[in-house]
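Thread: quick sanity check before group meeting

JM: Hey all, I'm pulling together slides for Thursday and realized we never actually wrote out the predicted structure for the chain we discussed last week. Dropping the sequence here so it's in one place. If anyone has concerns about the input, flag it before I start.
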Amino acid sequence: DPDALLRDVERAQRVSPRSVTFGCLESGEPVALVYLKTFYEDEPDVGLVGGFCIDENYRGHGLSGQILGQAISVYRMLGKTYLCAHVAVENARAKGFYHKFSFEPRGEYRDENGSHDRMFKRICID
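JM (edit): ok, ran it. Output follows.
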């Protein structure tokens, strides 16, 4: 539902203007996106990822670490201890991405889109 997504994005940006960030080439062409659900309050120490997207022509070029770094930076500023992503059970590519960056599965999440693994990464610096 595009309208619901836009409402969520507006809610997220009221918490942090950096909750939606585009990664662009020097030409200004957007090739990556990170969307953070900064309005998520069910778990006060958890920052929830709304989505990471990289244009398929730019996958494998080192952008994934940069968009992950953006998410970590935003949520550290908001005082979160963990970064969490809900990954579709059947999405092997996304699971590989999260495993590569040391996320650990911790339970399951179900919604209208099906079953998801809850992947967590500790982001707090002690």
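AS: nice. Residues 63-77 form the longest helix (15 residues). The mean pLDDT is 93.
JM: adding both to the slides.
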